[in-house]
Amino acid sequence: MNVDKLTHGLDELCIKYNDDTIDKFIKYYQMIIEKNKVMNLTAITDFEDVIQKHFLDSISLCEYFDFINDINVIDIGTGAGFPGIPLKIVFPDINITLLDSLNKRVFFLNEVIEKLELRNIIALHGRAEDYGRNIEYREKFDLCVSRAVANMSSLAEYCLPFVKVNGFFIPYKSGECDDEITASKSALKKLSGKICKVKKFNLPDSDISRSFVFIKKYDTISDKYPRKSGMPTKKPL
User: Fold this and answer.
1) What is the pLDDT of residues 57-100, one digit of tens each?
2) Measured between alpha carbons, how far is 105 from 32 in angstroms, rounded to an integer?
3) CATH (one of 3.10.310.10, 3.30.565.10, 1.10.3130.10, 3.40.50.150) for 4-224
4) What is the pTM assigned to this prediction?
5) CA dist 9 → 12, 13, 16, 79, 207 (Å)
6) 3-state DSSP helix/strand/coil percent for the chain, to nearest 5?
7) Closest to 171 (Cα-Cα) out of 231, 106, 184, 136
């Protein structure tokens, strides 16, 4: 299994790594492919494609955000564990919470956590609307990330309730997201979020364009948000 694309990408992102880091990525890939035989985790299965479009894409945020020790991060709609697990592999000292609404995906994530011997990371089964109202998780995180396929207005209502005041919600978006950003401004205002910058870039050794939208939370959110299950998607703010 040729890991040159992975090591080159990590070098490009100035990530410190060792043999154990690479071994964890290989094991993670193998577990994804094996589980993909019985449930739909990803349509991308080629090793080099997974490296570029999942692993390196997940950790590329490190170029623009400082993953300091003990930072609390939550990954909403994590699916197969992106971006949370790749971030945890390369930044082992951060605290990660993975949240997904499908229990069998959470079961898989727990298998990965155990197999890779990851620490200070948990996988939770449930909806963001419910956990976002839970005082144990509401406004407890320095950073919320999401690669979920949803418009920014809906994602903001799912994600900003988890973020501390002065913390950040950073969705992973395609390179062409200007219209989506513009359409989200009314929702962000209601949710005490403000876009402070947008970073557009290409993945290492690729013409695949991506955007990170940095949304800072400047105040607490009204208790009426998030609305009941399904509403943020059906009727975006």
Assistant:
1) 999 999 999 998 889 999 999 999 999 999 999 999 999 999 99
2) 11
3) 3.40.50.150
4) 0.95
5) 5, 6, 11, 23, 14
6) 40, 20, 40
7) 184
